Amino acid sequence: MTTETGADSEAKQPQDTNETEKGKTKAAADPASPLKQPEQLPAAVGHSTPARKEQEPQDDDQESHRSSISHLSKSPLRGVKKVKIMQCKVTLLDGSDYTLDVEKRAKGQVLFDKVCDHLNLLEKDYFGITYKDVDNQKNWLDPSKELKKQIRTGPWNFAFNVKFYPPDPTQLAEDITRYYLCLQLRDDVVSGRLPCSFATHTVLGSYTVQSELGDYDPEELASDYISELRFAPNQTKELEEKVMELHKTYKGMTPAEAEMHFLENAKKLSMYGVDLHHAKDSEGVEIMLGVCASGLLIYRDRLRINRFAWPKILKISYKRNNFYIKIRPGEFEQFESTIGFKLPNHRAAKRLWKVCVEHHTFFRLVSPEAPPKKFLTLGSKFRYSGRTQAQTRRASSQIIRPAPLFERSSSKRYNMSRSLDGAPITENHDTLMKDSSADGTAKIIAKGDIITTVTTEKKAEEEQAEQEDAAETPELAASTQQRRDTKDTEPPVGVAKHQTNISELKRSFLETGDSKPGLTEWEKRLSSSPAHSPRADEAPMIEPLEPQDTEDEEPAGDERKQEEEPKATEATGYLVKYMADSVVTEGATSSGPHGISLSTTMDDDVFIDGTLREAEEKTPDSQDEVSERSMVKISPGAVRQEVSQAITDKKGTLIILKDDTEGKNTAVPGEDTEDTGLLSAPKDKETVQDDIAVVVKAQMTNEVETPSLKIDMKPDDMTPFKGMDSPKKAMASWISQEVKVEASEVTCVSAKEVREMKTCDGLQHKAQIFTFEEMAHSKQSKSDPTQNSLFESSAASLAVSTLGWVPSSQKTSAESEQKETEAAPAESAEPAGELSEGGTKEIPVVHTETKTITYEAAEVDSNGDADPGVLLSAQTITSETTSTTTTTHITKMVKGGISETRIEKRIVITGDADIDHDQALAQAIKEAKEQHPDMSVTKVVVHKETEITPEEGED
Amino acid sequence: MAALMAGFGLYTHAIVRGIPASLAKEALRTSEAEVDVDKARGEHDAYVEVLKTRLGLDVVELPADESFPDCVFVEDAAVVCGDTALITRPGAESRRGETEAMKRALKALNLNVVEMTDENATLDGGDVLFTGREFFVGLSSRTNQRGAEILADAFKDYAVSTVPVLASLHLKSFCSMGGPGLIVIGSSEPAQKALKIMQQMSDHCYDKLTVPDDIAANCIYMNLPNKGHVLLHCTAEEFPESFKVFEKLKDYTLIPVSNMEKVKVDGALTCCSILINKKGSI
């Protein structure tokens, strides 16, 4: 099975999209009626492609983007402007086709939701929609992307499938969900994707019969009633007889029970839920890579020759047709190792990568990671944006509807397939999925054949995609180093998207405790082991043999973090939420050290707002980006609310909510207030600037894109500001501090945007903090267009970890602060722009990833005043250990009669090893506080620079 | 209700085989030890007696065949799991003929018999560890990749992972199952290493019971109706330290079984029988 070909599409988008679109849209465009196009009907699909390409108005895509704002108004100025409706055919799990209309520009989510509605399915996170790509490979539809971007050629035919096989189907809340899972599994079995023994075929078959036909009734059922049904790839008379024998014994068993039994057996099969991909190892040996809930499995023939549990994997990446995993060093190893696999082609590599990202997120993370910020990232922005298993479980526990009545369609597909050609599978998704079957040796060949039809154009695509990929590795690498809590990274999009009611979501956040599937298994094991009781008294004797996995729990956190990192970028806007979220999850699960460290760090007096910024190479995909981006934006408001709500709820019991917000900064009680009296905080631009690591990145943007981006984004970006206060409160309360909390969220896109934000929330002086960072970005992005599209760009960066703290003091007006922020970035941004220019052309390509995170005390007093103050003294102390360099910079200034002592501490940590950044940060802050109890931490900037080693980057 | 993979350790039948006189001189061995055939037979009789009388299994006793000195070690000739029996292709050429009698016996028990006909494949049952949830196959001097692949094909329900076995004859020369989810493992370095590999390859969690002597880690676990957990393990005489470890197991019926002679020709406890569950099979 495979996923969507995002990378390719992203890469080729600029050149390719228009053409493919033409094929599709053309049909929609040429008949006058804007609604259903007969030509788009599945029947007519065959010819919907290249022949008509030329006819498509060239501007189709842009058109649709532009019209996105007003498309609802259907004003028929021109035919093209009308909403184009596409007819989609979705093959359901029972083999039937469901035909529905969606807007051409609709996102995958729309289609998915409609299908789920049609199916009356609430627990939909386990499912997905697939389509075939040009190679006839099955890809998962990305819910966050427009359909038309994904279906580039051919008819809009899809299939509804199980995407994440729940390791324990009994945990599904509804019978109807299990029913659909059963249908999928029946098909998996019959098609051979899920191999099983004769005995298993018999058992599974018998439950299938029971659920479908009910009790055995010799009067009603013909003697060969069972031959109508399919149970196995090679169904024999003997099998049917055995099935019948068993069926007779099930009298009185309800369909739901039968399905439960079916699943209980099916889930134990070793290939249950394993998504197989053909590959070759470094020595060219044919192997299969299997992605599943617990990790990555390596098969040679049918043998499992290796297994990498998710916690063992530090990083996954792909480049061209190579797929890499970086492995956590074992007990006796000192270094991480990277293992590479060759996939048949680039698309396959990307598909595999995506499936891995999704499975990892779904099964291992408490909440998904946000995709990287479009503008500044390199590599694929793809992230899983749906709910994780943990979340979906919580959510389903909230389902309160009466068990829906549903009709179990008699398995049409089996009959159908039989009558047609004897082949077990007829439906298009079957064929698609076959790709991943264990016995798919022939597949590659077939694939190869198809590939031969590929033209040079495609090559170009691939090349571009490759470039993109090159960038990709760094991204992940960076994430590797930075250990942020995965949980933090809350994918606003997915949640909002999926979320049906707030309480559901709340639930899911609150009960993350048992989210680790491994644990349950483990516990089961423990309790079932006869040695269990003995072990109690003789502890040393029988030991759990899975220290690895248990240990893993922790590492898992790290791992996530790493992978998460990139996501956070996209989440800049949602940072507040993200933090809040992490706090919550932490509290609930106490599984990851990171979230915890974060919250403990900012324990009492200071509440920290964070900005996360990530500068990365940008790939030259314009349209996609735009769409993805805007997509992402949709949710923040909602998410935030939910999150905050969830938090508040949780909090409710523990803590009192503090309600100070809205641009009004209250003084901090406690120690801080004392300080306040004494000192003012004159901060001048320079200091601010200092704190900011300047990151220079060359970006490739094309002009077309920029405008469209703006259009799409602004409205969305604004949303963050609303509802912002709630999470803050929530957070504050969680920490049980009376600190004013402020969160500002700004997604950096364009300068324009930033400015808008400012204006719109005058009340918000928080915005400032982020603003400057954002500004820098925006500046950059602005300048980029002028530079025009340069593909390979290099990144020069400056990594600094700065911990600066200033005695807290009076706060100045929001306005002045804004000014300051505005100014500061301006300066830092300038050089950035220059650098990037130079860099793009001349600097050899060094893949460096830089990441800056700023946490700033909400009440950072801004000085705003142009008066730089008088420098009384300055002192710099440097100390070094093997891996860290600490520079303490103390400045005393007098400004407006108030003296300020400002201490900046820079800690530069270097090394290959996994650094637990959060911990380091927490430690640093703690120390700082201990050393200067009378001062408060006002700002924390974490800047991370990762250099991608050539091995990884190149091959 | 039919359920697969239930009842780990539940057996109804056992297949054993007599000891030919040729064992003393001709049986393959990794050491130079002298074997006393009579003693060995005595041991074996006691072993069979335990299965038959003490545990109440239906024991199928195949006659010894002088032309197959190692024939007593029936485990190598077949792998039985559920209702499927895979007739192996033993790695030692001199032992290939042992499978004939085994095949007949298994067919007589109405098992679904699968044969390993590929001439490139070798597999000794002693390299096959079935944990109840999956198989581990030792890649040893007796078992190769192809053999493992065929095993995987024969038992499609289960994951089959390979484990390199370098320092000993078979995988089960230093480990075995001591209960559901409990692996008994020797303390030697190769044994521990192999265990690490198994643990890495597995989706499941196991407990381990480490015993000082590798060969003592080869024991036979059963879970029998009315008897509960049963463990046939080494005697105090043979491996006093390991014996002490077993002794500490609670809720087990512990049955020390002497194996002093057979061990000289690398025969461990599991080697001498094939255990079959006919009731649970469909």
Automatic annotation (TrEMBL), chain B:
Keywords carried by this UniProt record: Hydrolase
Binding-site residues for substrate, renumbered to this chain: L28, D70, E75, D76, R95, R142, V265
One Pfam family cited in the UniProt record for this chain: DDAH_eukar
Keyword Hydrolase: yes
Hydrolase as UniProt keyword: yes
An annotated GO BP: positive regulation of nitric oxide biosynthetic process
Annotated InterPro entries: DDAH-like
Catalytic machinery residues: H170 (proton donor), C271 (nucleophile)
Entry's Gene Ontology cellular component terms: mitochondrion
GO MF, one annotated term: dimethylargininase activity
Family: Belongs to the DDAH family.
Protein name: N(G),N(G)-dimethylarginine dimethylaminohydrolase 1 isoform X1
